[in-house]
UniProtKB/TrEMBL annotation:
<keyword id="KW-0238">DNA-binding</keyword>
<dbReference type="Pfam" id="PF00270">
    <property type="entry name" value="DEAD"/>
</dbReference>
<keyword id="KW-0067">ATP-binding</keyword>
<dbReference type="InterPro" id="IPR027417">
    <property type="entry name" value="P-loop_NTPase"/>
</dbReference>
<dbReference type="GO" id="GO:0003677">
    <property type="term" value="F:DNA binding"/>
</dbReference>
<dbReference type="InterPro" id="IPR012340">
    <property type="entry name" value="NA-bd_OB-fold"/>
</dbReference>
<dbReference type="GO" id="GO:0016787">
    <property type="term" value="F:hydrolase activity"/>
</dbReference>
<dbReference type="InterPro" id="IPR011545">
    <property type="entry name" value="DEAD/DEAH_box_helicase_dom"/>
</dbReference>
<dbReference type="InterPro" id="IPR045562">
    <property type="entry name" value="RecG_dom3_C"/>
</dbReference>
<dbReference type="GO" id="GO:0005524">
    <property type="term" value="F:ATP binding"/>
</dbReference>
<dbReference type="Pfam" id="PF19833">
    <property type="entry name" value="RecG_dom3_C"/>
</dbReference>
<keyword id="KW-0227">DNA damage</keyword>
<dbReference type="Pfam" id="PF17191">
    <property type="entry name" value="RecG_wedge"/>
</dbReference>
<dbReference type="GO" id="GO:0006281">
    <property type="term" value="P:DNA repair"/>
</dbReference>
<dbReference type="InterPro" id="IPR033454">
    <property type="entry name" value="RecG_wedge"/>
</dbReference>
<keyword id="KW-0378">Hydrolase</keyword>
<keyword id="KW-0234">DNA repair</keyword>
């Protein structure tokens, strides 16, 4: 499968023995030498800093060398489970190591064994202890003979993440066997790049990261391997870019056509400078005979929809069709409604009162009635519909276009690389459609380069003039319960002034066991575990309607409603004024992206601590879209000073989405940043941190673009080619090669 060079591609069972290989595969999914060598130490214990037990102070981070004296296992008193306590000594002092629910350790922590134990000293009932220390037991027969310890551990002792079946020591042992026989390895980083960067070769780096003689060797190894991660990923992206740039697309000269011109003339406002500039960038791309792949990012409310719509109108002017893909049906329906309304007579081609330059806007959703869908499909095939709005499923369906020139993808975060590749199937006569991707929120620069590195990026920096920022306040439910009453009173005032109000809850109803499929539960880390149930849409709506908001018209919106029900609720909330109207909409995060109801002036988010920073900012962006001053209240039970509360304070303190995106990134773990977008690709980032390593990413990107420009097939860099094959699953690699 993978085209690794012989040494690295070798099966582990042939090198470290069947038993160890099986254990490593079970525990970590490792099958090759490469897999094992890329299991870098989690940390290093410095032997020089070994501490004597008698001198340990509470709170200190220590590594100690000690003998196990006695081990006991007993049930816990307050909870279910067991406590394992190992008493260790260095001959001077004593210390207890405690482990909860890790009875299996009894097998290895046997009295008489000696080991290294690392952790932070705490105290329990006046006794100093190490709770859940990292353990590295010395192999039998190795005593305190420093040379023997050094031989097995080096000066910096590697500590690997281990499991109940494979210990850190076993991993170190297996790696040592391999390193001892490691020859020269083909290097994914070509010589000239390595020289320019002043970094060491692969074989040395792997040796030095597992067995560093000193700090310098370690940092050389880390620098090199970190650069490699960034570089290989950037080469994949650069290749993807280069390949897309070679594909054929129909050039569409879009400026100044009748449809776009009429639209611009009828706009009730002037475009922002950013909207004009980005519009010109897009027009330039569309006029080329290779497909555009551009990402437009901007803060919530910066007017991305208009930018996309103008591009679509331009393509229709030039004789083609444009498809707009939304992540959910609610959004597809809403885009259709907004676009139709914004276009007015321009969207009524062939109808009475329709504009002579006009077109039709078709809508395709999964829950449409067959007859309706058939009618819409006919408009798409015939080309009568210049603009087609649907969910992402549209590109997987067998929908045929007469001449699809542009695909606009709304809210990229839920749209993967594979799906972008599937667009090829929509092409006619080998032509690719141009692709414009719109993000919901601003993306920090390093994320844009890493996750969307194969796209060109345009940024809308300013908001339209005259926006008043949404006043945001944290309402601490426990500390100031009276404020909650005030919050609902404010909601009532807004409704009485003729406005609309959103109430957002983390869950749908009280009866669900698993999270609903609409992404409505998305805490950004840290809130797993036993916590009281959060507010749910159904119970909150009931409670409000019969309590604080009695007399107001309260409706609900959530992911378990049918498409028709959701559409109905949105319509009653957005535009209905009669007795059908909904004044307060209690919803899950279905409303998170894109929903545009200018009359909505207030939002109350219950259990706001359950949402991430970017998500809160996105939610808040649903209000303040008209000319009225707007309000967002973040209700939380979290105590002052807690991390969750500080996140909420940050959201209340600024409305700058770029600032919040950066902060969000810093608080998230890497996996969350890259996870969904890198889906399908084995996560290749071990040392590289997108938050911290901006300079590495920038340099790696420049080097990657340069090498792909001079040698697109990478024929001169076999080591690099192998690394790419190992990184990108075969199917996708095939796609890349075919293209
Ligand atoms: P987002 O970038 O969040 O998708 P939208 O495109 O939905 O933002 O625009 C938000 C609101 O601002 C819409 O009601 C839209 O009509 C309005 N808008 C867009 N551009 C301008 C502008 N240049 N001046 C005033 N209002 C604008
Ligand atoms: Mg939008």
């Amino acid at each position: 499968m993978s085209a690794q060079p012989p040494g690295l591609a070798q099966s582990l069972s042939r090198v470290v023995g069947g038993k160890t290989a099986t254990a490593l595969e079970k525990a970590f999914g490792m099958t090759t030498v490469d897999d094992l060598l890329r299991h870098y130490p989690r940390r290093y214990a410095e032997r020089g800093t070994l501490t004597e037990l008698a001198t340990l102070e509470e709170g200190a981070s220590v590594t100690i060398l000690a003998d196990i004296e006695q081990v006991t296992v007993r049930p816990m008193q307050q909870r279910r489970g067991t406590i394992l306590e190992a008493l260790v000594t260095d001959g001077q002092g004593r210390l207890s190591l405690t482990f909860f629910n890790q009875k299996w350790r009894e097998r290895e922590l046997r009295p008489g064994r000696r080991g290294l134990f690392a952790g932070q000293i705490s105290s329990f009932r006046g006794k100093r202890q190490l709770a859940h220390p990292q353990c590295l037991l010395l192999p039998d027969g190795v005593d305190d003979d420093p040379e023997a310890i050094a031989a097995f551990a080096g000066a910096l002792i590697p500590v690997y993440s281990a499991t109940s079946t494979v210990t850190s020591w076993q991993i170190a042992g297996a790696i040592r066997v391999i390193l001892d026989t490691l020859g020269d390895l083909p290097d994914p980083i070509p010589d000239q790049v390595r020289q320019a960067e002043g970094i060491i070769g692969l074989a040395s780096a792997l040796t030095q990261i597992h067995r560093p003689a000193n700090d310098l060797e370690l940092s050389q190894a880390q620098d090199r391997l970190r650069f490699e991660e960034a570089f290989v990923l950037q080469v994949v992206l650069a290749q993807r870019r280069a390949e897309m740039a070679l594909m054929p697309a129909t050039a569409r000269v879009v400026s100044g056509g009748p449809l776009q011109r009429s639209f611009d003339e009828d706009l009730p406002f002037t475009l922002t400078r950013g909207q004009v500039e980005v519009g010109e960038e897009i027009a330039g791309d569309l006029a080329a005979s290779h497909p555009m792949h551009r990402l437009v990012q901007g803060d919530v409310g910066s007017g991305k929809t208009i930018v996309a719509l103008r591009a679509m109108l331009g393509v229709v002017d030039a004789g083609g069709q444009a498809a707009l893909l939304a992540p959910t049906e609610v959004l597809a329906v809403q885009h259709h409604r907004t676009i139709t309304a914004m276009l007015g007579p321009l969207a009524q081609a062939g109808m009475l009162g329709g504009d002579a330059n006009g077109t039709k806007v078709a809508l395709l959703t999964g829950s449409q009635r067959t007859a309706t869908r058939r009618r819409e499909l006919l408009d798409v095939i015939s080309g009568d519909a210049g603009i087609v709005v649907g969910t992402h499923a549209l590109i997987q369906d067998t929908v045929e276009f007469r001449d699809l020139g542009l695909v606009v993808i709304d809210e990229q975060h839920r749209f993967g690389v594979e799906q972008r590749a599937a667009l090829a199937a929509k092409a006619r006569g080998g032509m690719r459609p141009h692709v414009l991707v719109m993000t919901a929120t601003p993306i920090p620069r390093t994320v844009a380069m890493t996750v969307f590195g194969d796209l060109d990026v345009s940024t809308l920096r300013e908001l339209p003039a005259g926006r008043s920022p949404v006043a945001t306040h944290v309402v601490p439910v426990r500390e100031q319960p009276a404020l909650v009453g005030r919050a609902w009173a404010r909601v009532r005032e807004e409704v009485e002034a003729g406005h609309r109000v959103f109430v957002v809850c983390p869950r749908i109803g009280d009866d669900e066991s698993a999270p609903p499929g609409d992404g409505s539960v998305a805490p950004d880390g840290g809130s797993a575990g036993e916590e009281p149930p959060t507010a749910s849409v159904l119970s909150v709506a009931d409670k409000l309607a019969s309590g604080e908001l009695a007399g107001l018209r309260v409706g609900v919106l959530h992911g378990r409603m049918t498409g028709e029900e959701k559409d109905n609720a949105m319509r009653r909330f957005a535009s209905e004024t009669g007795s059908e109207r909904i004044e307060v909409l209690v919803a899950t995060t279905v409303i998170e992206v894109g929903v545009d109801v200018p009359a909505a002036t207030a939002m109350v988010i219950i259990d706001a601590d359950r949402f991430g920073i970017s998500q809160l900012h996105q939610l808040r962006g649903r209000v303040g879209r008209g000319n009225h001053p707007s309000l967002c209240l973040l209700l939380t039970e979290m105590p002052k000073g807690s991390p969750a509360r500080m996140r909420l304070d940050a959201v209340a303190a600024t409305t700058d989405g770029f600032e919040l995106a950066q902060l969000d990134l810093q608080l998230r773990r890497e996996g969350d940043v890259l996870g969904s977008s890198q889906s399908g690709e084995r996560s290749s980032l071990r040392l590289l941190e997108v938050v911290r390593d901006e300079d590495v990413i920038v340099r790696a990107r420049a080097a990657a673009l340069a090498i792909v420009a001079t040698d697109p097939s990478l024929a001169s860099a076999p080591g690099l080619l192998s690394a790419i094959h190992a990184l990108v699953p075969d199917e996708q690699a095939d796609f890349m090669e075919k293209a």
